[in-house]
Design a protein that fits this description.
By secondary structure, this protein is of the alpha/beta class. The protein contains 10 helices and 8 strands. It has a 5-stranded parallel sheet. The chain has a 3-stranded antiparallel sheet with strand order 3-4-5. The chain starts with 5 loop residues before the first strand and ends in a 9-residue tail after the last helix. 38% of the residues are buried. The structure holds 2'-deoxycytidine-5'-monophosphate. 2'-deoxycytidine-5'-monophosphate (DC) binds next to α2, α5 and α9.
């Protein structure tokens, strides 16, 4: 049992977990774990080494040299893979899809488990992903699950891409998000699902600021056991 404070935030792709986590981390002065980034880095490395076999992927998941470094203004995290900055390529839709495909493999998930749990360090951790509250930190007492309709999440993503000058088609984004939701929530191991004791926040019609405020308001102030 650890008494390091912990908040878990789970939910589907594009729901804003990452932004909410960073804002909370800035506010509370805690660390973050972007567990999706781990699956994404693994997918990138697998592509780079042309690996698709489960055993080889599992070995890679154990040995991969991943380094997360918060940006000085805490607006994001720089991700290094074998010392190389992969932060940008990591965020692409194709990397997200590849990560979701790798994430169905039980041995790969098991390999990443201890690496994820090692992020629980003082003064506290905000962990976001799909199974933070159900599998990785099942005894956390501050669990949140964010939801938003597929259309709303696709709209947000579409706007982000447009702002970056990237050409995108809304119907394609809707299809991709729906497919990823289906794969993430129907896999046999650690599927995307709200923990029975999670606070569910429907975010379709509220701002990021409101989501952050809502989490801070509902948070129980006690320290939080992790394992
Ligand atoms: O949160 P994200 O979009 O960066 O995650 C990419 C993929 O990684 C997601 O579609 C499924 C997988 N993932 C997972 O299976 N479990 C997690 N805790 C986080 C991500």
């Amino acid at each position: 049992m650890s008494n390091i404070p912990l908040i878990t935030i789970d939910g589907p792709s594009g729901v804003g977990k990452g932004t909410v986590s960073l804002r909370l981390a800035k506010h509370l002065g805690w660390h973050t774990l972007d567990s999706g980034a781990m699956y994404r880095v693994l997918a990138l490395a697998a592509k780079h080494h042309n690996i698709s076999d489960e055993n080889a992927l599992t070995h890679l998941a154990h040995t991969l040299k991943i380094h997360f470094a918060p940006l000085p203004d805490l607006s994001g995290t720089q991700v290094l893979l074998d010392g190389q900055d992969v932060s940008q390529v990591l965020r692409s839709e194709s990397t997200g899809i590849a990560a979701s495909k790798i994430a169905v493999l039980p041995a790969v998930r098991q390999a990443l488990l201890a690496r994820q749990r090692a992020f629980l360090q003082a003064p506290g951790l905000i962990a976001d992903g799909r199974d933070m509250g159900t599998v990785v930190f099942p005894t956390a007492s501050n669990k949140f699950f964010l939801t938003a309709t597929c259309e709303e999440r696709a709209n947000r993503r579409y706007k982000q891409l447009k702002e970056k000058g990237i050409d995108a088609k809304l119907p394609n984004i809707i299809t991709e998000i729906a497919e990823r939701d289906k794969r993430d929530s129907t896999r046999t191991i650690a599927p995307l699902i709200a923990a029975t004791d999670a606070n569910i926040i429907e975010t379709s019609n509220i701002s990021i600021e409101k989501v952050v405020a809502c989490i801070l308001e509902r948070m129980v102030p006690s320290t939080t056991g992790s394992l």
